[in-house]
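Before going further, it is useful to explain how the protein records used in this thesis are read. An example of such a record is reproduced below.

***
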Amino acid sequence: MASRSLFWLVGVLAGAALAPHGSGGPQAAAADPRSSRVHYVIEATLGAEMGLSGRETVRFENASGDPIDELWFHLYHNAFSSNLSTHLFEGKGRVRGGKRIDEGWGWQRVTSILVGGEERLGELRYDSPDDEREQDRSVCRLPLATPLEAGGTLEFELTWEAQLPRVRRRTGYKDDFILAAHWFPKLAKYEGGRGWNAHQFHRDTEFYADFGTYDVTLDLPQEYYGKVGASGVQAGAAELADGRVRTRFLAPSEADRVRTDATGKSPLVHGFAWTADTDYAIHEELFRAEDWKAEYADEVQRVASALGRSADELVLRDVNVRVLIQPERGGQWRRHFDATCTALFFYGLWFGEYPYETITVVDPAWGGGAAGGMEYPTLFTCGTALFTAREMQRPEGVTVHEAGHQFWYGLVGNNEFEAAWMDEGFNSYTDSEALFRRYGPQRAATWYSGVPVWGRRVATLPGSGRLGQVLTASRIPTGWRNVVLRPLAGSGLMNWWRDQPLLSLVDQYTDPRWNDRSRYLSSTDVDPIDTFGWKYFDRNSYGTNSYPRPAVALRSLPALVGRDAFLRGMRHYSETWRYRHPYPDDFFEAFVKGSGEDVRWYFEETFRGTGTVDWRVDASQWKDPEQRGYLQPTPADAFTLIEEEEEDEAEDAAEDGDETQVAAAADDSAEDDTDDTDDDEDDEDDEDDEDTGRPWRYDVSVRRSGVLRLPVTIEVRFDDETTQSFEWTREAQELSTWWKLPLEPGQAKLAAVVVDPERLWYLDTDMSNNQWFAEADEVAPLRWGERVLNQYVHLMRWYASIGG
């Protein structure tokens, strides 16, 4: 016990000594009331049945500008303590994967809290600031006997106990696999002028905390020796004694705390997670920044030119990448490494270097998938499967995304409760850009019992409604004691037998950047993007407005400001708010300043409105016909014509000839004309087309549906390979929802008209009506129609024979 107490004292003193003060302590951050700092020294022990006990010393530096008279804490694991917690109540008792919790509950409780050496546990109270649910225990508060003055520092100590839940959303255990995330009592976030921002742990929210440092010592069963990963870097060798292993981690590392990054700031983190699994295979390799800069020299030069810097000024550091992978998927470790390097390089190139010396990649155990796809400072979990290929971008897609969160949320610490889109949406935008540059288009596969087959169905399967389920024998209610028959319920083997994939599937390649738009279309106008995470209409709206819709809004922004100005705006925002806590208005203002473009109206309409836009084009063309019928002259012309006719008649009377015969011939000619009238009308267009002496006239109209008014280009293409471009301005669209293009008659025939020819406006909800062609492609519809028909003919035969 004495040695453990000494270890604890050394940790507390070392944590105080190592905490950086040059990156925004109370004095430096006085101008930013959201940049207080917090430093933790934690010692935790893993006991029987995945129970945790621990104690922590917390030093809070108040940079808010306010005196603070109470402390608020998060106890995140209490979200899994009862089906009546806010988290589970909102999810109807279900967690990731739709599973209902009937066992494996998790919880946390504080057993002591010392402030100024005095025990204050009896004054700790649970609170539910968001929904007033008395059964929720994810937030608690403690009044202070003496307020903490602005610029002051408060140190206090807690002891606590916890039960890790069976792996749930973002945390838990499965057999010997552990992901411990938000596993200790964590101080909430105080904001100057606003007070404590301490939201409950909702089903659709994540986290928010001050930046600072962590010094964490873990005491685990010796089976975990050499099988532990955590935020930061291991400090010294792990100690083995009495069947236990003790290991200490510093986040950021000791070296990182005394280093300044390319922005001139010392690295900090705002959380600490750890993982352990007796089955981990651990691989380490170095991300070499210069090698990647050489490989993508053109992209480096483009970024340097856009930012007005030299390529040498785009500093990136080498990073040690640790991959903790399950043995059955050991062959994929290098793919995880490459995807992590992809994020480190492209995100760092565009938005500033990753400042830490290490990053840890975690592959959750089989059955622990609910812990996958999550991000924590310098550590993230991914997700994969057996039999994947690089073309699928699996695990590459999720690995790039989660590694990318080290930038959006890790370095720029937005409030994930209130503005999840500021990291998820920004990250969705960036990961697609990085994935396409590194891996190209994504190839689709259809899975049967965990085995992929290249290709996708060309049409959806029947049987989604009740009648369809009965007719396809996938679900037949009997009406007796809720018994449901499923003679042809889906299964991997059954589906393979039904589809005959080698005969019915077709290859599909998709640009990952367009996947964002496809997902955005599922909920384009239900809620504004800028909505608190738990206040969206439903989970689909939350998912759409947090991930693909902001990504689409960002990807459309270069259409307005240009690609270089867009990059300057994003870079200025990321560097300005590194190790700080921006809100939406902070992003808007930083982007405007960095880009030099005032697009506040765009942010208001796209991020705080529900407006949409859909442009469509219609066109026709013709030539003026030859004159037929009678064109009445003007009175003056008529008088002249009468005199001329009288003179002509006098001359005709003097000439020899049978006028009667002439008249008869004229009558015969008129009859012939009458007989040929129908043929002339049928051939009129053809004759006009062949007549090059008359110009083509054009009627091209563009229409807009939806309230978004965005400047868009219309390109008119002619058959002589010339083009004309028109700009339908925002101001013009405010006056009218349609516009007829001012095209002058010409000798060239229209070949095509295209709205947004470069496809810059990803916000357009229907791009199928953005183009008009004089000559339609008659082959493609027949080809795809034949494929759909072939799929359904095969399917109907299969159903008719019950799989025979």
Summary: The radius of gyration is 35 Å. Residues 1-17, 21-30, 662-666, 680-688 have pLDDT under 50 and may be disordered. The longest strand covers residues 51-61. Residues 779-800 form the longest helix (22 residues).
